[in-house]
What does this fold into?
Amino acid sequence: MPPVAKTVRVKVLFFGRLKDVIGQSEDSLDLNDSSTIEQLFALYSERVPELAKYRSSVVASRNQEFAAWNTLLRSGDEVAFLPPVSGG
It folds into this structure.
């Protein structure tokens, strides 16, 4: 019998312009057990190609702490994608 792939469920938050691009401020998603923040962003970029152009300037957080793009995700994690902030 082949091994069953494990999945993790994460909550995803989008802020600022990213929320407008995606069309919602939050979502929940099931991912493979060894998925990273980078892979999560790539999944949304496949669904909404316009999102990909923001990748170089987006900051990610996991459980309300800034996180590297190669951070592994665990079930119950909350991931937020934050666009660059401009101000005066």
